[in-house]
Design brief:
The chain is mainly α. It has helices at residues 5-29, 35-63, and strands at 72-74, 80-82. Helix 1 runs antiparallel to helix 2 (35-63). The radius of gyration is 20 Å and the shape is elongated. The model has no long low-confidence stretch (mean pLDDT 85).
Length: 83
């Protein structure tokens, strides 16, 4: 199953926000960034986290087959096989 466009976009946006936040942490710890700029970077990362979490939850729901689906079949030895 391919990832949805929403989930792919959320991953990409989160990755960008995380990289920016990591730079902000480094700069802030080195005292080269003020509190307001650091807090702004942290707020952007938190927003990206929330969007990613929502997209991940939706994607996880898509990945679970219906109980009535013929995608899951029991084999003779009790193992599940996905088709």
């Amino acid at each position: 199953m391919e990832n949805s466009a929403e989930y792919t976009a959320a991953i990409e946006a989160h990755n960008v926000a995380l990289r920016v936040y990591q730079v902000a942490v480094t700069e802030y710890r080195a005292l080269r960034m003020n509190d307001a700029d650091f807090l702004a970077a942290r707020k952007v990362k938190a927003a990206a986290d929330a969007v990613f979490d929502e997209a991940f939850a939706k994607e996880s729901e898509r990945a679970v087959p219906d109980n009535d689906s013929s995608e899951v079949e029991n084999t003779l030895d009790g193992q599940l096989v996905l088709f």
